[in-house]
Amino acid sequence: MASSNEDIQISNKLDDAYQHMQSAQLYVSKAPNSMSVDLVNKADDFYNAMQAKATTAQNILAAVQPVYESDAMKTIRDGMNTLVEGLPGVLKALDEVANIHPFIKIAVGAFKVVVELDLKRRDNEKKITLLFVEMKDMMEVLIQLRLIKDEEEPGPDGTTIKARMQELVKRTADDIKTCANACDAYSKKKLLVKVLKSSSWDDKFKGFLTLFTDRRKAFTFALEMHVGKGVDDANRKLDSVNTKLNLVLEFFATLVPPDQQQLGELINSRGGPDAVMKENDVLTALAKYKPSSEVGSAKRADAHADLRSNKDPEGSLKELKEELFESADVAMQKNLETFERKFDVQRKKIIEEMQGIVRHEGDRVIDSVLSGPHDKIRDTDIHELWKDMRWRGHAKARHFVLALRDYYSSEFVSTSGVSGPVPRVIAEDQWALKYLDVEYISALIEAFDEDASGFITISEVNQFTTSRPQGWSVVHWLAYWAQGWQMSCTYYIVKITNCFAEIFALEPHVRAENHTFVAEYLMNVWRPVTTLSASMSTFAVEDELWSRFESYVLAEEKRLDDALKDVHYYIDAVETLYLITGPGRIEQFIFPLLYLLVRRHLDVMRLCYRRVVINRGELWYAAGGIYYIMDMVMARVGYLESLFKQRNLDPDKQFKTFAYGLYNYIRDQDQFWSLKSLMNGSFTTADFRPDEVEKDLPEPGDVLSYPTPMEGLFSRPEEILTESDLEVSGPLKVILGRWYGFFGEGDAWPGYPMVTFFFHASEDASVAKARSITAGGVSFAIVGQHALKDDGTVEYSFSQTFSGGYEPRHLKARLSDDGQSLFGLWGNKEDDLKDEFYLTRLPPELLTARPSPREFRENKIQALWRYAIDATREQIRRKSTSLSWIRIKEYLARRNKYLTLIAREEDQGLNPDEYKELAILDHGFTYDEACCCFVLLEMRNRAGDKVPNFGCNVCAQEIEGVRYTCLPCSLAQNTSVDFCDKPGCRDATLDIDGSTHLPSHHMIKVRTFLFYDRDTPKLFGNATRVIADLTEQAKKMGTRPKLPAADARNDQGQDGDTGLVDGASGALQAKDSVDAETPVTSPIDIKKDEPETRGRATAASANKVIGVRPTCVSCSAKMEPPFFVCVDCIESIYICTDCDEQLGGLSIGAHTPSHSLLRYSRSSETNRAAGPSEERLRALESKVASFSGQFTALNERMHRMEGLLESLLSRLVPEVSVG
Ligand SMILES: [Zn+2]
Ligand SMILES: [Zn+2]
Ligand SMILES: [Zn+2]
Ligand SMILES: [Zn+2]
């Protein structure tokens, strides 16, 4: 006890010392040299006393240590550890009190919702837990209302408790929600952001801790007053609360998780947060930092980042910087909408749950007198079975299901008196008995055995029977799990497959600005989803049986869809998924959930076709949603795997049958996606039907989660003066509101495009603040202060900070006499301001007409004169209602010049003359117009973006444009072996893993964007058949060509010339065995017909001219190998190398340059002997091909730009108002 007393003493002293230090510091900073000395001395004394006391302590920190272990600290720590256990009791008590005092329902409701939401978060962020502990402590005070019988009963002073507390309770509900939003926003931040922005968040959280404590005091005070205690009494009670707050805040500071600590140390070793944030390289490296024990939210937030940085490391750096620039407040603001949606979903859920558990016919009433564990079972039949089998708390899963089957098949004879078989199942459920057969036993076990433990507990039994749809018998429900579930999965797998087929058909046709994102989505999403859907054994939908389950399946789909709608199909975390699905195994809803999401994404893609240019984030986050589902899947697989091992079962074997093999492929994805396995099947495809794509097109606003870049331009939120702005007076008041302006730099006026921002007063009315974005898309904040000069004038000083590591600016400004302009000097260093700026309240159109400050200085009269003329001219120009063609042309010319210059400025910089030209152009564009230009530039860059896809095996670069893929080498390596079109690459001889690639191999020339996983099997299958045809043909001619593929067929063991063909026909056979009526085991894909085979094998044989040398479709020359054959056309299209090279791909009939061509070679010798002339031709070919590629892209772009410009102009011109 003595030591504990000592602890408290230390703690008290420390507290005092701390307080003195704080006030001392405050004074020191305010009045550096006067009365503070006293205070400092006092604090010093305390420290000396402390140090004397803590003789063993090496430093002050060590002395502080005991405080954390003191009783009070222990209470806090315990409170955190037991939070989850304590909550249900508190919630229940609060509910009861809310029934007596309905006015607290609003706060209790909000508290319940945020608690539920937080429980779904699986990470263990201690700071957030501490916030919830404080929230709970605050709410607990309200339980004391229990002692007050009636909310309308007046206290001694005549006020009712309701009147006393109602406002406070309402505010509390809001505060709880705000705090939960902060926690939600924080938990989504990347680890690096959490560390670098920790002070901003800590301030926020400490604010909440203080707020909740204050509120607790206010509640306590109100209660004490109501029961007639004196003010002094009440205040005394509050003192302890105050002491605790100090401890809590101190404790809070110690709650830094190890991963954040590690990263924090790393940052300090690199010079601290400020230094780190300036260095792009360091930031990028730190963003990749993974702590040694990586758990929880950091991992999941980074999964998202990984998805993005896949392609766009620059982009993610830019985003990271944007995030680092954000204060906690801004991050909370951004998260609010998402959070509110989740909040509402959870609130609905709680209300639904309050309406009670579903009661089924035949359910027993559970009374409190139990004669055995079986009495806890709700269902009458299972209750009887359980009792008779004398099971205790659980039964072996297999035994249970077999016994259940016997019971329902009436083979079961009761031992409890009633003898003889009794029919247990009513006539209309007789059909279902068939599904209680041994054949379905694993499915039935899985249905009951929620945790896959091999045992079925009483609560699992109750969970199973009560979860059945209203009106269904348990037997019906069992039949659903035996067969109906598999059938419903098949139903959704087909739907998902068809959605993807449509998206893949649409992909080549979407607007160029969207293509990268659509392609990336498919590359990221299709493969994991297909791994799941292909893995499961499907069962074709039988109409009669289906009709028994359909209502339930569709009701479940609707339930999920409604929940998805509530969150706007935006899945920001795994917790949100739990919110949508509700409790239960993930297998239950994985496919409907995936279907609903992919169907929604298909709607987005349809908009991408022509209607809109989507935001960069749109499909990234769409893909992110699917990734979160895959996170859940992987967690489930991991759980099952360890469980199987615990039960001494072989996971490999178990996964083959568990949930009809659902997780079988995902455990060995590489095997499933190997080329060999892919070649054994094919994927469902669809035709591109533009009219279908555009039919009943949804409104962009209904489907898109992010503003489109165009919307961003035109729907900037209108800012107006707030109430607190209006209360401000003095020099600050006159600068509030909207400003437009230019910044000069060196000789250039302006040095930058026009800027605009809107000054609001800060909360304490001490400064003016604004946040805005430059025309080029960089966020900035600007803070303005004022000071009275000796001459009585007011001087304003502004500081402007940018996201993305740009140097901050300092501005010194004067307000013009009429209050309409602010002007002065700016610079990056506070003591070195030398460039001019000019801000005005006048419309931006007039600003474009205003001569530079220098012109005003040099000849004011002349400048004013010019200003007047130009402004008038500008007014007339912009007011004219009809768009004169000359004006449009002039405008477009200016804009095009501007686009060229800003693009080049970004790329390589400009020369002095170009800078002058740029300044003139900058000056001529309003802020909106300049924004337009930058958006257009972005669109242009996006249209030219390439998605990294295939790399060259020789030069290791990403292949752009023409790609050669070697058929035999790819098959031998079990992965794509590709070459770019550079002569040194596509003609190379190369050793790959022990075998040699020769330029004479059969290569396929691909000019379009193809997806490796999806398109390769078809491409190679077609090419293999073409080779077979040609070989056949050559045989008939008697000039049997030597197939150079021998080295690649080592494991086929077939006759050299037909080995590949057999592989292909094997694939066809595999497809034939997909029969709609019989259960299918592991097809690659579900398909009822095979459009892509297009009768290749038959039509091609019918078309070819047997025994005649192939002739070129273009120049009609008779050809010798090597020549090209189309692998996509049904007809045999032969093209000589010259024609294909010269024209960059032929268009003849159905054949287009986007078709892939097989380069059919006869033997290695011919190619090896390629002469210099051929070499030159090849070089020419690549030039022509690349030129023609550029030309097509350019043409397309021009076309799109035209449309874009027209629509932009038509929107822009009516907008202009001159006031
Ligand atoms: Zn190359
Ligand atoms: Zn090869
Ligand atoms: Zn030709
Ligand atoms: Zn073709």
TrEMBL record:
<feature type="domain" description="EF-hand">
    <location>
        <begin position="436"/>
        <end position="471"/>
    </location>
</feature>
<dbReference type="InterPro" id="IPR002048">
    <property type="entry name" value="EF_hand_dom"/>
</dbReference>
<feature type="compositionally biased region" description="Basic and acidic residues">
    <location>
        <begin position="1085"/>
        <end position="1095"/>
    </location>
</feature>
<protein>
    <recommendedName>
        <fullName>EF-hand domain-containing protein</fullName>
    </recommendedName>
</protein>
<dbReference type="GO" id="GO:0005509">
    <property type="term" value="F:calcium ion binding"/>
</dbReference>
<dbReference type="InterPro" id="IPR018247">
    <property type="entry name" value="EF_Hand_1_Ca_BS"/>
</dbReference>
<feature type="region of interest" description="Disordered">
    <location>
        <begin position="1037"/>
        <end position="1095"/>
    </location>
</feature>
